[in-house]
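User: I need a structural model of CAAX prenyl protease from Cannabis sativa for a docking pre-check later this week. Nothing fancy, just the predicted structure tokens so I can convert them on my end. Input:
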Amino acid sequence: MAFPYMEAVVGFMILMYFFESYLDLRQHAALKRPVLPKTLEGLISQEKFEKSRAYSLDKSHFHFVHEFVTILMDSAILFFGVLPWFWKKSGDFVVLAGLNAENEILHTLAFLAGVMFWSQITDLPFSLYSTFVIEARHGFNKQTVWLFFRDLIKGIFLAIILGPPIVSAIIFIVQKGGPYLAIYLWAFMFILSIVMMTLYPILIAPLFNKFTPLPEGGLREKIEKLAASLKFPLKKLFVVDGSTRSSHSNAYMYGFFKNKRIVLYDTLIQQHTVIPLQHLVSFALNLVSRSFEFQADAFAKKLGYTSSLRAALVKLQEENLSAMNTDPWYSAYHYSHPPLVERLAALDKPDKKSD
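Assistant: Understood. Predicted structure tokens for CAAX prenyl protease:
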């Protein structure tokens, strides 16, 4: 008797859904708390707290609906054998197009194109509701419907341009890899990651946003002075027009070796602010990311920027209406960045003195 692999996969998906739903319920209960955490008392106004609470609860309700519909669709697709049926139909399409269906690369590309089309269609209502109802209701959405669909179309064209050569290369490696398949695949994915990390901010990101050099002034001087004091190889300093899509604030850095760049969202400059197993992999990566975040905060503290960092973190929390109350289990599993309460608590801890 053959092992029921499909039933096992569906069962594991449902088990993970119930586990994550339990964490979601814990977080929802934390979001409903009507009072600020003691760590944030006196730092966050009651008005901002109420706005943050309403925004977080709106997103939480939406998340429950989205996840329930997603698990229903995914389970039905796997349990009723929709993917094998679609694989056969994609082969028929290749033949209809006058191509060779025995060519595994062509067959796979046709299959993935159909899957991409299906996922875009099924997720579109949720994306529209999230952007034009929830984000708009709380004053964050700045997109027009035209801009939303323009970005969607650009993303599809990028997938059409970049997807086939990458998928073709992976299939070729699988066909020819032999006993060293895992090593070849790892090497290819590693090189691809480096290339994409290099090309994305230069060629792809400008298709969606406008990047301009940060003008001369006090902010630029302070950033360049800090970078120089740390021997940080800052080559370029950009402002991105994030306000055309959202009023959320952020900043990030990228680059390799001696060519580092910093990008500030224009909304930030306008304020006072200096397969189922993937869930387990994501959790592990979150743990690593959180550790790095705490290390970065500790480094800023060591440089004497504790008060400035505290003020900046609180300001970002306020302006983005981020959740003030968070469940520790939920945040440990889902958040790549520690919640504000945990970061402030870590900053307030006295430094360990060596004997």
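Before docking, keep this in mind: The chain has a mean pLDDT of 80.
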